[in-house]
UniProtKB/TrEMBL annotation, chains A, B, C, D:
Organism per entry: Gottfriedia solisilvae
Alphabetical UniProt keywords: Carbohydrate metabolism, Cytoplasm, Isomerase, Magnesium, Metal-binding, Xylose metabolism
EC number: 5.3.1.5
Transmembrane segment boundaries: none
Protein name as catalogued: Xylose isomerase
Cofactor entry: Mg(2+)
EC class name: isomerase
Length: 444, 444, 444, 444
């Protein structure tokens, strides 16, 4: 059975194509820097937004028109799996991601939930045999059910901690079963609403305990996927413990967990924390902690997570700049943790949205790659900081200076000359690269 | 004497040019929609940011390297005038704008201030005789001097109101003398910090009185420039009375002033108010109140007015879309109320920054114009709202329906079918237009 | 049958009481300024948050423990009515408010929905016969059902406009039937997500048409309740047309509707728009447009509507200051448009929360009343603005001055002397009033 | 000579006093929890805001009326020292803080600057001999002069790094000379405006080098004051490296500096970072890093640092709660890094503002202490988390559980029961404590 019978396989047709259901810029086989675009970008579809979500929001019911809408329970779960693999194939996307509860309904008991999961995981495994699409990561939903009202690993209720442990245990087993390349921890409700009723220290200590148990269990079952923490500053709780990359890093370091984790960085979470997307990527990169990316965008005038499909070419370019400087994403990928707007309720919009995101990241990749090839920022930065390559600057970076030697030097300095940062020109150059790189692409 | 002797006249050289001091996209003579780009865009240099400001900020002293830096008083004022006209000519820009205090130093008395102004205005007038550059608008600075600590026309001090009236009177006379096309009122400190010490009603009534007096005086001296109000939500005061276009409109309507004023809309003020730039332009446009534009950009992650040069091509495209749909700016212009970053302290950066802004608006114009020519949004919107062109919808817009007729109709309706808003596809199309329109431009 | 059998009637027991289920400061019969506190404050329970909502949020399912939880359909609707009147009585609250869909389930057709409503309205009417609790206002929910995905009166779909008209028609009939004192319009989805697919002018014109039809129909059926518009800047749509009071005022004035409407002002909507609660109240007050209040509070560090119960005594004091200066709320009231936190899921929390809100507004009333009695701000303001009571200031406010006379005056002024605004001292005094007024209350 | 001859020594006169220049709640000798209020609160005056600042802002010139206003250079510097000690004495405050450039003017060379500093430091030392007021901390201003345009220790210019090292070296010597109890590092311009021209890794590595050199030099000269880092998220740069406590902690840990530093936490910096003040205090406290406090408040609707005097009693109560739970501030203090509003320009306002702040923290202390004495939150939290004191919860916190044991437990669980968080009741209780504790205080 086909769920998207009126949609043909999406192909690269170039920017002149009038076919709205084609890639204009994303050309999977195109070689960039010795690598196929497909292998470099490692796109992934987020199961929850694309197959599970119905378009409801805090002020309204679901709007999404979906061919599986009439089904319920396990029938619905199975239909979604079928539809998902048809979708991956038509979009020609190499990865997908899911929470346990996206794929299988919760049962009346944990045991029943396990059984439901087992059936669906078996089905997914079967589909994967004949599909090129792999599991980038899975995770456990530990925020939707009322039991998680006060968090999961940071709940005030030990039963909830135990239940959550069982969920992640099962999640790791599924990860191993399906060959997941990573396993993600998003904090969900791991945070607080008011300090007046919160023991922050116990909660964070318990979170560290939980992570250590996960590391131990992965070792026990020989699951060798990368563990990823996904920072988010707030929502649903007022304060989430994994506020941003730096906060996550402080926590991991303090608990001897930094060797076992990297970060899964989401654009919209970055801006909710008051940072640019590229800032969070940079912080992770220079600390060797850039694991994977949730590729979406937010609206900076809006104070909640809008999870929009990424179409801002400045954002995709500057993000890909960080990723390329990182030598790529390694075992990570670009997962579209993005939802079609509530008003974009047609099935067709799912394709439009993913095409928009994939084309936008393809453009960003082409531009970022050319910026790096031409060393546009690198040369500017090399020149800007060159005072650290000789004399007193060299002594500083080689740890040969101290306050006494530096004072002696400073007392003999005349007026210090600085160099202009040229921010306006650099922004102009970025625009020129965006337009001209793509202009050349168009004529290929 | 030349202030910018190492800078040649900035010319259009196209996107392939390696000359950083050239326009890549702004081609003043290029015809768009029957009009020269120069006549359509009406660029203006902001005297204060470019010639008066020194780069100081709340945490630091001035950094700007300027060839007139060693001068003081009237000598400094005169040097700035000389430099400004050299700058306009080298940048080939048709307009400039100033506050009274940007061009001439305040004297010890109001009379002395008038004398200083008279000397400089005479000098400017002289320069204008041989320059193509006209005065887009002038205004009075009524916020820097300590006397305005509690506002000008909304001060609690009647003396300050009187003093401010004299300033605007002089400003209108200068406007007439120099042939200013508009006169601007930016609220400065017209607002409050705490309601606990504020009589908001008296302050707003006084503001209305002040505006009526200005209208009367302009009539008296036969100054026929357009009066413009520039909304800003906050900074320096916590709440500014001209919060945004809608707030300004409510005030003007309530005080019978809406016939005499339009709005000067600034991008960064829009975003500080929680709106997009294009939102403010749209609100003004559909109310027939779009007067002129302060062309800059803010950083939406930053809570103060950063007044950056406009380089975001989404913003320039969507702004130009509103402006072109408005039939252009009429007597208004695109004034670069923008400052080079504090770290961009070289004279050269002033040119880089203006080039960046002019190229960015040129690109925005080309893209917006093509979007309109192809009726990309128009066709979509026409189709989206077409239910109002027949049947019950037609009755509604022709004011022939009422709750009784509509209820009768509604009771017979089956399930209502809506149309997808296609936001993701529209964003994709916007990207494609941006890249492809400019790609074609490049080959011209 | 009793739904809250373990809860006794909440009584005023004073601040020393150890009974958590008692009023500590809200003493309904206490006379303030010649009026009973009960008559002055006009508290109202919001049906939706208290009886209909289940505690779900965008990341989680309902958590609320409610004695009617096991019921569905009309049985559930009826149980809620029963519970609601028990709640009003135990809380001794004079008003309630509801949306149509809060009280009765939507049927398969509009006709069925009417029938459900008729049954429930009849039942409510019956309860009201023996209850002191009156209907402060009702309204129509035009945002939850998918048909409103693009708005109601501003939908792109004429059928939705017609359907919405029928809903409001029915709402007005219910209002008349139940003796509602006001009828509220909250914009719901009357706004837009992207201008690229939006005809803002048509949408706003249609909104004006809709309001005129409502005014006409109220006249037709002789419903004489006050019409109220409730501003909100964003959420669920990115931009709501009734952004704030000023924006609403501009719209009403432009469409000759300002005679027929006042505003229902919500604290959390004010702060989402970047204003304080008291600012919005002041703007409405000085324009004669203060109708009613949605008494809640937001968290200014959070970018979405949290609808918390009001407990911030600064906010309740400054709000009550505006309300008392307005001569009270007239036909309006203080409606607790507030929800218990998702983690406060016990039935008991509903009582705790309302007690917290009622006590907080009682305190605010006592403090604000004393501030006004002592003319604390009034005297300060009178002195601060006294320059407008004589000489040039008097001429200004009596419209006898013009730019010529003011310039003549200003030219003869010496250095202008301003008066300190004393913000720090005023804040200190506010604290002192808060603590000392209540300290005296305690000893009564 | 007296600078404040019309101001008498500020004394505790209790809440009934009509004398605006008296403490109403701050009673230095009152014993709280075995300690004098004065010793517990350790108030400090910020030299820069109170004696150096002139009230200028980005849109206006200085407004402050000060008796030393007519002086310049070293005469001005000396007058300020004289005035400052008169101020400390009249306010009876035990500490003060300064940046080097607050107290002495910069010379033409570093050597001259040193000389100016030496003269003033000698003078301060002399005053300290007969004053009870001690130096809580000093620091070096490394952000005002243009040389710091790109930062100090993170400048791209090695000369600036060297110059900054000399400044801090001198600062540490002054600290030792004056017996400073702490030495503070606020990041000033240690951050970036755009990543396009920034080598974040080199900059942060250099910052770590700089801190290590400071630690070494302190050891060399046997200065044993506590080193403090003051986080701030942005302003003046778009991104400051010491964003918040967690970010600072990550940096210190990664660079083996956490043993040598604690944090100086400012309320307004916390809210600019999206946190409450008490959140930042809590994070520092549970990590053993709470050093000192910059006691002020911001306006959460405003996006820049307003540095207001602390008058919000919720904020002072919840801050003092953290501080008391920390066992006090140790070597730290409550430094009023706060400025009078630009409109509060009288000398008298300096006293009003400090009195407001001191009374507000006194109230906060009384309330927080009583909350702790009564174990209001402690008992609630103990009960809320009690599931971790026995059974599976005990095993978890004793590190005896693992995923296998927890799964076995979870599989046998029935429906999990959670406890209500009672946020509304807790907020009510907080109000009651605020009002009743102070009500009792009033009668003492």
């Amino acid at each position: 059975m086909s769920y998207f019978s009126n949609i043909n396989k999406i192909k690269f047709e170039g920017p002149k194509s009038k076919n709205v259901l084609s890639f204009k810029y994303y050309d999977p086989q195109r070689i960039i820097n010795g690598q196929k675009m497909e292998d470099l970008l490692r796109f992934s579809v987020a199961y929850w937004h694309t197959f599970t979500a119905d378009g409801s929001d805090p002020f309204g019911a679901g709007t999404m028109q979906r061919p599986w809408k009439h089904l319920t329970g396990m029938d619905l779960a199975k239909a979604r799996v079928e539809a998902s693999f048809e979708f991956y194939e038509k979009l020609d996307v190499p990865f997908f991601c899911f929470h346990d509860s996206d794929v299988a309904p919760e049962g009346n008991t944990l045991g029943e939930t396990y059984k439901n999961l087992d059936i669906i995981v078996e089905m997914i495994k079967d589909y994967m045999k004949t599909s090129k699409t792999k599991l980038l990561w899975n995770t456990a939903n530990m925020f939707t059910h009322p039991r998680y009202v006060n968090g999961a690993a940071t709940s005030n209720n030990a039963d909830v901690f135990a239940y959550s442990a069982a969920k992640v245990k099962k999640g790791l087993e599924i990860a191993k079963e399906l060959g997941a390349i990573n396993y993600v921890f998003w904090g969900g409700r791991e945070g607080y609403d008011t300090l007046m009723n919160t023991d922050m220290k116990l909660e964070q200590d318990n979170l560290a305990r939980f992570f250590h148990m996960a590391v131990d269990y992965a070792k026990e079952i020989e699951f060798d996927g990368q563990f990823l923490i996904e920072p988010k500053p707030k929502e649903p709780t007022k304060h989430q413990y994994d506020f941003d990359v730096a906060t996550g890093l402080a926590f991991l370091q303090a608990n001897n967990l930094d060797k076992h984790f990297k970060f899964n960085i989401e654009a919209n979470h970055a801006t909710l924390a008051g940072h640019t997307f590229e800032h969070e990527l940079r912080v992770a990169r220079i600390n060797g902690m850039l694991g994977s990316v949730d590729a979406n965008q937010g609206d900076k005038l809006i104070g909640w997570d809008t999870d929009e499909f990424p179409t801002d070419l400045y954002s995709t370019t500057l993000a890909m700049y960080e990723i390329l400087k990182n030598g790529g994403l390694g075992r990570g990928g670009l997962n579209f943790d993005a939802k079609v707007r509530r008003g974009s309720f047609d099935v067709e919009d799912l394709y439009h949205a993913h095409i928009a995101g994939m084309d936008s990241f393809a453009i960003g990749t082409l531009v970022a790659n050319k910026l790096i090839e031409d060393k546009v920022f690198e040369n500017f930065i090399e020149d800007r900081y060159n005072s650290f390559t000789y004399g007193i600057g060299k002594e500083i970076v080689e740890n040969k200076a101290n306050f006494n030697s530096l004072e002696a030097y400073a007392l003999n300095l005349g007026e210090i000359q600085n160099k202009s940062g040229r921010e306006e020109r650099l922004k102009s150059v970025l625009n020129q690269y965006l337009l001209e790189v793509i202009s050349e692409f168009a004529t290929v």
